[in-house]
Prior knowledge:
73% helix, AhpD-like, mainly alpha, 2 domains
Amino acid sequence: MTSSRDVMKEISFKLAELTDETLFGDIWERPELSKRDRSLITVAVLQALYRTGQLPGHLNRALENGVTKEELGELITHVAFYAGWPTAANVVPIAKEVFDGRGQ
């Protein structure tokens, strides 16, 4: 199976390079916010903007960065009141699939 990063490199090498070097190599590594905090922010923004394609990867990253399943559930609920109920209802099955895939 081809990874999304491989597809990105095939279609837009420069976008893949910027993703690796600038987004994940610089922005995610800046010390002013922890990776845990960056994960919380990223999942909240993806939910609010209804960007569901990126959510599984960032939910997994959040769990790897120390965010708990319970905290992600609370985040989903909190964002629902600011970004709308449909965004939260849409994220719940995505989160369940991620949690189940990790055995959580």
